[in-house]
Structures are given as C-alpha cells and as structure tokens.
Automatic annotation (TrEMBL), chain A:
One GO term describing the cellular component: plasma membrane
InterPro entries associated with the record: ABC3_permease_C (IPR003838), MacB_PCD (IPR025857), Macrolide_Exporter_MacB (IPR050250)
Organism: Maribacter stanieri
Membrane topology, as annotated: Multi-pass membrane protein
Subcellular location: Cell membrane
Protein name, per record: Putative ABC transport system permease protein
Primary location group: membrane
TM stretches of this protein: 21-45, 269-290, 327-345, 369-393, 413-436, 674-695, 723-745, 757-780
One family name in Pfam for this protein: FtsX
Transferase is among the record's keywords: no
UniProtKB/TrEMBL annotation, chain B:
Record keywords: ATP-binding, Lipoprotein, Nucleotide-binding, Translocase, Transport
GO function terms (MF aspect): ATP binding; ATP hydrolysis activity; transmembrane transporter activity
The protein's name: ABC-type lipoprotein export system, ATPase component
ABC transporter domain location: 3-221
Pfam families in the record: ABC_tran
Xref: Gene3D superfamilies: P-loop containing nucleotide triphosphate hydrolases
Matches recorded under InterPro entries: AAA+_ATPase (IPR003593), ABC_transporter-like_ATP-bd (IPR003439), ABC_transporter-like_CS (IPR017871), MacB-like_ATP-bd (IPR017911), P-loop_NTPase (IPR027417)
One CC-aspect GO term: membrane protein complex
Entry's family note: Belongs to the ABC transporter superfamily. Macrolide exporter (TC 3.A.1.122) family.
Length: 794, 221
C-alpha cells in the first residue's frame, strides 16, 4: 500500500510538474534562507554558552549626566570594590594596551592582545585545551593563547611550556591554550597577557589613576547577592573616590549576557531581524503551500469520492497527500542544504564576516540545526498535508462524486486572508528595502563637509624596525610628493574621517561652567587643506609658528557651540581641577562628518603635531590631480617598499574608506533585498497556482460568458480583479507597519532621510505589476480558450 | 431476498417547505434480478440508486440489505457492507485519471487488503475476460468512452459483488458502444447471477432488464 502511495505521489507530482517545480523552488529557497538566518541566530545564542556560570558574572556601566554611557571604569576601582565587598568572589580587568608582535623561531605574528588580571580564570572559567586554570596567570611572564594563535605558531602541537618572544625583547612562557571560541562570542581574543606585565610601564602607571576610564571590569558575584544593593555600594565608592564624580549620574551593574549587545548595538537589530524574517518567510511558505494544496484538493474531490466508493477511507487520502508534500519538503530540504553550504553561508560570511567573524558549520556542535530543519520539515509536511484535506474527507460521497463541493464562504474568506497576509509581508519587505536603499544612498552621497574625491589614504602605522631610518626615508618621500606637480596637498595625521579613535576627554570652561566631552586627534598643518575642510574662524596650523612649546588646537563648530562661545578669541582648552593653563585654540573648523551619518558630529579637537613625525601618525593623506591617483600611489608604494617594517604598507581612496563605513548596513540591505525578492516571488507563486486553479474551476463560466459575447479583456479583468483588490488590501496593511518600523529605525540615525509617499507608491507598484504579470499570463490563457471546447467538459 | 425498501422518504428543506426527493418508496429485489429504473429528469432515479448503494441517506423508512437493517447501522458498518457486496458503474465512468487501466482495476482490491499475488491474478483475469489486456498500461484519457466504461464495469466486478448499481451506464456512449455494454450486463446477469439495478432513459436499454420501475416526482408509479 505504501509503495502504491509512493508511486502515485511521484506520478501526481510529475503530472503537475510546473506547479511541483514552482513549489519546490519556493520551498527550497525559503527553507534555505530560514536555515541560514536561524543558523546565525543559533550560533549567536550558543556562542557564550562556553562561559561557566555566566549568570553570576557582571560588569559595570557608567552613565553620565549628558546621557552618554560607557563600560570602561577607572583602573583602581576594581581593587577598591574587591577590598570592600565580600560578595565579589573574583574580578578582572580586560583591556588592550597595543597589540604585541610575537615571535617563535622564524614565525612572527601580531594578534589582538588583551590584558587581564591573574584572577581572570576565576571569573571566566573558559575551557582550556592545554594547561590549567590555576597556573595560567601565576607567573608574570606568562601568556595564554587562543586555539587559533596556537595553531598559527605551533600547528597541532601542545605549546604549553614553550616560549614566545614579545616585541623583540620579552620572553613569555605559554601556560595555557583556550578551546576554540565562537566568533559570535563576546570574547574577541587573540592572546591573553597578565596585566602584572604592565605594572612597570610608566605610561600605564600614569594612566591608572582615578581620572582615566579605560578598562571594563568583570566581577563574579555570589549567587545570593542583592544586585540593587551592590549597585548602590558601587555608586558610593565611585562618588567617594573618583577625581571628578560630578559628571557621573549613576553606575549600573550589568549582567554579562548583555555585553555583546553593548559592544555592537546593531547586533540586537540583526538578530531580531533574522528571527522575524525567518518567521515571516516560513509563514509565507506555509501559507503558500496550504493555499495551493487546498486548490489541488478541490480538483481531487471526485477522486476522493471514487476512492471511498471503491472502499478506501479518509486515512488513505491523508496519507497520500502527506506523502506527496513530504516528498516535496524532503527534496527541498536537500536542495536548500546545498544552497546553504554552497551559497548562502559563504555569502552571509561575506556580508557580515568582517564585523562579526565568519561562522562555519560543524556537525559535531551544530547538529541541533539539522535536527531543527528535519523537525520543521515534518511539521510543515503534516500541516500542509492534513489541513487542506480535512474539509474534503468529510464530504458526503454522493456530493463528492459530482465533483462539486459547496463553495462555503468560510474557505473563501480564509484563502483570501492568506493572500492578503502574504502580500502584506511581501510589500512590507519591499518598503523596507526601498527605504533602506534611500537611506544608504543618502549617507553615501551626503555632503560630508570635506571633499572625499581624489584623496589617497595610506596607512603608515607599520611597526618600523628602525625608526630613525624610517623617519629619514619618510622625510624624503614627503619632499618628493610636495615637489610633484600632480600633488596638491599632503598631510599626516592620527586619524582620517571614518577612523577617529573613540577616546573622549572632558574639557571645562570656567566662564560658562560647561563640561564638554571631546573626541580628539592629532594632525599636521596640511590636513584641513588636503581634505578641504573650511575654517569658520581663526587660522589653520602653521608649521613655522606652531612648533613652539605650546601645542595649539583647532576645534570644530559643535565644540564651540557646546561651550556656549561665539568666538574663540583668547580661549584655551582647559581641564577641570587642573593647574594646566590649557592649549591655545587657534581656529574653528566647519562640522565635518568624521564618522558615519548614523552618529551626530560631536565636539572634536585637533592637536597640532609635526608632519614628519612618522611614529606619531597613522595616516598619510595626499590630494592629487584628477586622473593621476595611480601614478602617485605607485610613487608612495615604491618609497615604503624600501622602508623596513613588520607590516606592509597599504593604501586606498578616501571615498572608498568613507563608503566602507556602511559595509554592515550595506550587508543588511543586501539581505533585505534578497528577502523582499523572495517574499514577492513566493507570494506570486501561490497566486499563480491559485488563479490557474480558479480559471479551471470557472472554465464553464468563462465559456458561457464568451458565448454571450464577452471579450478577452473583459475575462482577464474578471479573473484578475479580485486578486488585485486583495493585493491592494495587503498594501494598505503593510504601509503603516513599514512606516512605523522604518521611522523607528531611521530615528537611530543622526542624519536620516524623511519617509516620502513615493516610497510606498513604488513598493505598491512593484507588487502590483509583478502580480498583474503573474495573473495576466494565466488569465489570458483562460480567456483565449475556445468556448466550444470548455463548455463540453461538463 | 437481496434487499428490501419499506416506505422510504427523502426530502430537503427549501424555503421552509419540504421538497420530497423520494416519497414512500417500497421495493423488493431478489437475487439474480435485472431491474431498470426509468423516469423523467428529476424524478429521483439517481437518488434512489444512491440510497440503495448506501452512498446517500434517507429521512424515513426502513432498508434491509441481506439480513442487515441498513438504517440502524453506523456509517462505518454501512460502508463495509457496500464495499463487500456492491459494485458501482457511473455515467461518466469515474475512473481515476492518475491511474492506468490495470491500477484502476487493482484499486478496490488494495482497499480490501488482498495479497499482491492474488491481486495480480484477479486483475489479469478481468483484463482477459474483457479483452483489454493490450490496454492495461494506458491511462483512462487515452481510451474511447466505450472502452472507459468497459474498464468501469470491470472495476465494479472485480470485488465479486452481489449487486451492481449502474447510473445511466450508456449515457455518454454511442449506440454501438451502449449495445455492447448492455449485452455485457445481460451476460453477467444470466451467466454469473449478478443482480443488476440500472437507471436509464432509454426504452431499448430498459428492455434488457427483467423488471422496470417507473418513477415520477419521487414516487413509484
């Protein structure tokens, strides 16, 4: 019997092969996308599960009076908390201090370097591949490697006990190797060093005061700890000990599970988006199959009745139908896995890998995803196999045999609401895609306050082996460039737009009593000219007069406004509670967008720094005559090829660097575009199947109408009209939702487009035309049919 | 006695009024009879046939089939009863379009859970008897109307029913084809002793039967 069912299933699928193929296509792409999205969600949720007792780990968040917040705290706070709070079982700093170059034999690599307290493993009991938690940070000159770094240096060997030379001078003993860490984890580790190593570093000593917040701290608390009470305690410590506690509104004790959201805020949106998208796509696929299957069932009412007369029962009919759908689902799962591994996963890593790290599928760890897909497949099969049959199996045989079923209003409404739902979702995604496109286009083309074209940006932070030799070669290059007729301006600086450091310094004006948080950078006297940033007041830096004892600064307009000044005449940039008389402010520049347009232009200060000081600058920027970019690039690259350094010189165009800021949003856009296409495709698929079935059911009606003189156009309109109305209703539902969602999203941008009516009109039109096209094909076919033939079929 | 209908009424409610489809039908059928039901369109012929075939219910009266009283039986037993003893032949054949001739014949046996080897034998037998061995791998749509009806009759017979119900079996056939089918019925009735009840419009076809029942507006006349 089963064999018979199987044979019949294949025959049925083959008989309706166009429909089966479309179904298979929609299902495969749908399941493939859901698999990809859900896999990334799954990877995200399990990424931190390797941290034991994560629920007892907390970190501190500092809220400022001006509404800003950050996770860094001053260095001595941790010891203070530990000494006064018995509920703290262990605590550690976790911060960078420059990434060190490590050497073993002839191999030399630089990796993300994180400094931690000896208690690190008491807080984070990360599983170790080699070594043990107790001895890992016992000695000052020890180093813990991640699995990746260990493989980089030593392959599959156990490196514990071996030594690495750091920065050409320090011998570090490897004490432990961590198990591989998921790229979606909150840890971005390369190597871990004990911060006891830094204790003698003079700059480090200088920074570890009650003034400078540069390291987050992580605490493991007793499970019984009352967090609210502990928070008050920390708050009190902060108010008592901080050099300037007045800017701080409160301290918050945050559970460690929040830390990932904190570090990359869009993660939340992306994960929520992934879940919502998977849900919608799945719903769409399901609804589609239900719809098509219900239609097929109508055609089979007679079959079912005949089978019943011949002795069959409803169980057989359901089995048969489930089997047909099961075959479809099974094949589409197979096809979607091919899609997933061969195309979607690599594509996703392309899009998001740079920001989140690449994820790979391993059967050992990720088998729940496969199980999930199978369970999902079975559920889908059961739902789409059983639901549509229910109404038909209970139909009296004497009615079924006539091939007629009472066209109850119920199913009609149900099917129509399915179509509306589908098109609402599809149109929603089209709206999102259009608005996202406009916003990204706006951000990429917006006036940034500087000229981004024809500017070469070279990274000159290359870890030179011989600083003096490098400096003199660099000086030679600068002279060559300045003499070159195709070079208009040359500049060196610590930062370029799109890459300003996130270090904030608070300055104070005793007259207006304003505290203003500044971003800061160092530039030479050619920076504003090279980028063509206009000055509003004062003068640009000038190497002839600015190389004196005082370092002059230029601030931006926002900074001036934040201080409440109308002029900078005689103003200096001062710290609060400090004897330092401050840096003279020599100029005010226009607010240019030194970061992406998601963020507002914050107060910014440029300190003057000598152009030729290679060690203290990170970027070389060169404005060249249009068309000569390549030539100049070659000259610079040739010069750097002669300088001995650990890193290779790399350069590019400023315009690319600026657009590169939107890589992540671009990635989201690509995803949304694909999803929008997918949803409209799947919806149309369903529509196509439905109308072809409807046309078949109305074949007699069409015949009669034609005999009575209706033209082809009239029939086409007759068949399509209802569906177009449904699409319209779908659009009306989708528009306000899209408007609400996208307004909220655009609100997170400091500079955003306003949503225009034409965006909705465009989305509606796209949906309308695709639908009309789909409907048209089928409707015209039915309308052209010869009435003599169609009337005879009864 | 094969079956007995006593005071059968069937009606539908239409606009608050009872419209009678069958009115006070009394009928006794002996095994081996060949009965033709005649009457104008809408007189209740097909309804009567469906009631006899247990495909349709009735609102009042008693129906005895062999020793069972059908009106007291549950749906499940009723369907077991007709599966066992009744074969149906339809005006528009009602073959399953997705199945070949051979598979169409096999279908009722599958539902009776007969073993594969036995099924094959019975089907081969039937193909042979109706001279359609050459057509066994064709689909119904590839056959002429007469051939389709031949398969329809073969399918009705394969379960060895005591009774065949035929609803205008020649309605879609030309005169030569219908003559063949009627000859077949006659042969089945005479040689195999199968009881046949047919609904027909044609006087000529009615002549094949041993008894004619005339209906008008749901009433036997």
């Amino acid at each position: 019997m089963l064999l018979n069912h199987l044979k019949l299933s294949f025959r049925n699928l083959w008989k309706n092969r166009t429909l089966s193929f479309l179904n298979l296509l929609g299902l495969s792409i749908g399941i493939g996308s859901v698999l990809t999205l859900m896999f990334s969600v799954y990877a995200y949720y399990v990424a931190d599960s390797m941290i034991p007792e994560q629920e007892h780990i907390y970190y501190l968040k500092t809220h400022l009076n001006d509404g800003n917040d950050y996770n860094e705290v001053v260095y001595p706070l941790l010891d203070k908390i530990k000494n006064t709070s018995p509920e703290v079982k262990a605590g550690t700093h976790l911060h960078g201090w420059g990434d060190v170059w490590l050497e073993a034999g002839d191999k030399e690599f630089q990796n993300t370097t994180t400094y931690a307290d000896p208690e690190f493993f008491k807080v984070f009991g990360l599983p170790l591949k080699y070594g043990n938690h107790n001895t890992a940070f016992k000695e000052k000159y020890s180093i813990v490697l991640t699995d990746k770094v260990s493989k980089q240096f030593f392959g599959e060997e156990n490196p514990v006990g071996k030594s690495l030379k750091a920065a050409d001078t320090l011998n570090l003993t490897i004490t432990a190797v961590l198990e591989p860490i998921s790229p979606y984890s909150s840890f971005r580790l390369g190597v871990l060093l004990p911060n006891t190593l830094l204790k003698d570093n003079p700059i480090f000593k200088q920074q570890t005061n009650w003034n400078n917040s540069f390291s987050p701290i992580f605490l493991k608390l007793n499970p019984e700890t009352d967090i609210a009470l502990f928070e008050k305690k920390v708050d009190k410590l902060v108010q008592e000990n901080y050099a300037d506690p007045s800017v701080i509104s409160r301290m918050e004790v945050m559970p460690h599970s929040e830390v990932r959201m904190d570090s990359i805020p869009v993660v939340e949106i992306i994960i929520a988006g992934n879940i919502a998208t998977s849900f919608f796509v799945l719903l769409l696929v399901l609804v589609n199959l239900l719809n098509l299957n219900t239609s097929t069932m109508f055609r089979r009412t007679k079959d079912i009745a005949v089978r019943k007369i011949l002795g069959g029962n409803s169980k057989g009919v359901i089995t048969q139908f489930c089997l047909e759908n099961g075959i479809l689902v099974l094949f589409s799962i197979l096809i979607s896995s091919v899609l997933f591994f061969g195309f979607l996963l690599p594509k996703m890593n392309d899009v998001f890998g740079a920001d989140f790290g690449e994820i790979n599928f391993s059967l050992k760890n990720d088998y729940p995803v496969i199980l999930g897909a199978i369970v999902l497949g079975i559920l889908v099969t059961l739902v789409v196999g059983i639901l549509p049959t229910l109404r038909f199996v209970s139909l009296p045989v004497s009615q079924g045999i006539k091939g007629k079923i009472d066209s109850a209003k119920g199913s009609f409404i149900l099917r129509n609401s399915f179509i509306i739902l589908q098109f609402s979702i599809a149109i929603l995604f089209i709206c999102i895609a259009i608005i996202l496109n406009s916003q990204i286009g706006f951000m990429k083309k917006a006036d940034l306050g500087f000229e981004r074209d024809h500017v070469i940006v070279g990274n000159i932070d290359l870890d030179y082996k011989n600083m003096d030799a490098a400096n003199s070669s660099f000086k030679g290059l600068l002279n060559d460039l300045e003499a070159n007729p195709y070079v208009t301006y040359v500049s060196t600086s610590q930062s370029v737009p799109s890459d300003y450091y996130f270090n904030y310094t608070t300055f104070y004006d005793p007259n207006t009593e304003a505290d203003v948080r500044f971003r800061r950078s160092y530039t030479d006297d050619g920076y504003l000219k090279t980028l063509q940033i206009p000055l509003i007041e004062g003068r640009d830096f000038d190497s002839d007069i600015d190389n004196g004892e005082e370092t002059p600064v230029i601030i931006n307009r926002s900074a001036m406004e934040a201080f409440g000044w109308t002029t900078i005449e005689g103003k200096r940039l001062k710290y609060k509670n400090s004897d330092f008389i401050g840096n003279p402010i020599v100029g005010v520049m226009k607010d240019f967008h030194y970061q992406d347009l998601q963020n507002a232009v914050e107060p910014l200060v440029h300190y003057y720094r000598d152009e030729e000081n290679l060690a203290k600058h990170r970027y070389l920027t060169v404005r060249v005559v249009d068309g000569k970019e390549k030539e100049i690039k070659n000259i610079i690259a040739a010069a750097f090829a002669k300088i001995d350094s650990r890193k290779n010189y790399a350069q590019g165009d400023l315009s690319d660097k600026v657009s590169g800021q939107y890589r992540l949003i671009d990635g989201m856009l690509k995803t949304v575009n694909v999803v929008a296409l997918l949803t409209i495709f799947i919806s149309c698929l369903g529509m196509f199947g439905l109308i072809s079935f409807m046309a078949k059911r109305r074949i007699k009606e069409i015949g009669i109408r034609k005999v009575l003189g209706a033209g082809v156009l009239k029939i086409v309109v007759l068949l399509s009209k209802d569906y177009i109305i449904l699409v319209g209703i779908g659009a009306l539902i989708a528009f306000p939702i899209a408007w609400y969602m996208m307004s909220a999203w655009l609100g997170s941008f400091a500079y955003s487009i306003s949503i225009q009516w034409w965006m909705f009109a465009l989305a509606g039109s796209i949906a309308f035309f695709i639908t009309a096209f789909t409907l048209g094909i089928q409707a015209i076919k039915s309308a052209m049919a010869n009435p003599v033939k169609s009337l005879r079929t009864e | 006695m094969l079956l007995q209908l006593k005071n059968i009424f069937k009606w539908v409610q239409q606009g608050g009024q009872r419209v009678f489809l069958l009115k006070d039908i009394n009928l006794e059928v002996e095994e081996g009879e060949f009965i033709s039901i005649m009457g104008p369109s809408g007189s209740g012929k097909s309804t009567l046939l469906n009631v006899i075939g247990m495909l349709d219910t009735f609102d009042e009266g008693e129906y005895g089939f062999l020793s069972e009283s059908v009106h007291t039986l549950k749906e499940k037993y009723r369907s077991n009863l007709y599966k066992e003893y009744i074969g149906f032949v339809f005006q528009s054949y009602h073959l399953l379009d997705d199945l070949t001739v051979e598979e169409n014949l096999e279908m009722p046996l599958l539902y009776k859970k007969i073993k594969s080897s036995e099924r094959k034998a019975l089907v081969a037998d039937m193909l042979d008897r109706f001279n359609i061995v050459g057509k066994k791998d064709l689909f119904p749509t590839q056959l002429s109307g007469g051939q389709q009806q031949l398969v329809g009759v073969a399918r009705a017979l394969i379960g060895k029913p005591k009774l065949i119900l035929a609803d205008e079996p020649t309605g879609n056939l030309n005169s030569q084809q219908s003559e063949e089918i009627m000859e077949l019925f006659k042969k089945l009735n005479e040689e195999d002793g199968v009881t046949i009840i047919q609904v027909t419009h044609s006087e000529k076809n009615a002549e094949y039967g041993s008894r004619i029942i005339n209906l008008l507006d749901g009433r036997k006349i």
